[in-house]
Amino acid sequence: TTLCHQVKGVKYFDCELPSVRRMLEDPEHFLREQGKALIVLDEIHRLTDPSNVLKIAHDHFPKVKVIATGSSTLAAKYKFRDTLTDRKRDVWLQPLLVSELGIETTSELNHRMLRGGLPPAYFAKNMSESFYTEWLDSFWGKDVQELFPVERKTSFLKLAELILRQSGGVFEANSFSGPCEISRQTVTNYLEILSTTLFALLLRPFDRGRSNEVIRAPKVYGFDTGFVCYAKGWNTLRLDDFGLLLEHLVFNELLAHFDRSSIYYWRDKQQHEIDFILKPSRGKEVHVIECKSSHRSFDASAAAIFRKHTPLGGNFIVCSDLSKPEKRTISGLHFTCLPLQCLPRELAQTAR
Question: Alpha-carbon dihedral of residues 289, 293, 296, 300, nearest 10 degrees?
């Protein structure tokens, strides 16, 4: 919505408004009136049959270009009766990226971690908890309550809160069942809703077919660091908090630049773990990405064990205390240590 309002010459229609929904009850008449134009249909999932409107626009009104936005992917899955194959391009917007904000100092990174990456929170003069509470109320009312058969609001919102508070951890459904007072299966069902609406981001384990590797349990991240800090009650950050939140920002960068199916984490049954594994669809290279608050406090033992059987690929350490990339050799492995804003460029160069 923020970006759409900034597009020059665009005609903006908010489908939350009953008057706009009435206009779109006759899509042919509506589109004919637009002539040759670029239009925004914001919150398009609020329409009764959104896919039909877009199909008619594409097939019969090629001079009308449409940007359709929606806050819920699951709404689109349930309401879109036509998949619109070859008629649309999907864009998944991440919270504001460190690489696009031009963040260079620790204080700027601290601000991004605490406030999160939604524009109203990031650019506000003063930090306000009301933004997060109002957003969560809206999420429940618009993205969940109207679209899914969630019988227990309190349990659902408790699970959402716990996911934010334990963000970045391995997800075990049984550990949430008691605090949320629901069955293990219901926890799994609710997690699917939170994942499909992009509130919770699931990171699958990397599977090389070896018996000593964890291959089932995903890690679950809250979609935005501001909401993670809000759920944890953090108003300031300690040094120990940077590593966890840095993982979230790295995950956001990876999701913005690479296909979701190419991003994993790795862990074996001896508790050796690598924060992120990136395996592009083409080629045999597998990239190792670790996140550390300081480049001086890195243990390369997990990477060394992983590389014994998967030697091809780059090794990266993303650090919050560096201003430019540095090359280091640790435990016989060559690493590129770098600040977060340099990660997309370095990965792109390695891929070439």
Answer: -30
- Measured CA to CA in angstroms, residue 219 lies from 98, 205, 222, 242, 277 at distances of 22, 8, 10, 18, 13
What does the pLDDT look like over 176-196, one tens digit per residue? 999 999 999 999 999 999 998
- 233: alpha, beta or left, given left = phi > 0 and alpha = psi -120 to 50? left
Residue 198 exposed, middle or buried by CB count within 10 Å (0-12, 13-18, 19+): middle
Between CA 76 and CA 108 the distance in angstroms is 36
Complete DSSP assignment for 250-295: HHHHHHHHS-GGGEEEEEBTT--EEEEEE--SSSS--EEEEEES-T
| Confidence label for 71 from pLDDT (cuts 50, 70 and 90) | low
Cα–Cα distances in Å, from 186 out to 146, 159, 170, 182, 218? Answer: 18, 10, 18, 6, 17
Span 137-186, pLDDT tens digits: 989 988 888 778 888 999 999 999 999 999 999 999 999 999 999 999 99
- 3-state class of 103 per DSSP? coil
Burial-class residue 96 by CB neighbours within 10 Å (0-12, 13-18, 19+): buried
Is 330 buried (19+), middle (13-18) or exposed (0-12) by CB count in 10 A?
middle
Question: Which tokens go with 128?
Answer: 């306000």
pLDDT tens, 39-69?
A: 999 988 888 888 899 999 999 999 999 999 9
- Beta strands 219-222 and 263-267 are unpaired
* Token output for 213: 């590797």
Task: Write out 162-198 in H/E/C secondary structure.
Answer: HHHHCCCEECCHHHHHHHHCCCHHHHHHHHHHHHHCC
Separation of alpha carbons 113 and 106, rounded Å: 10
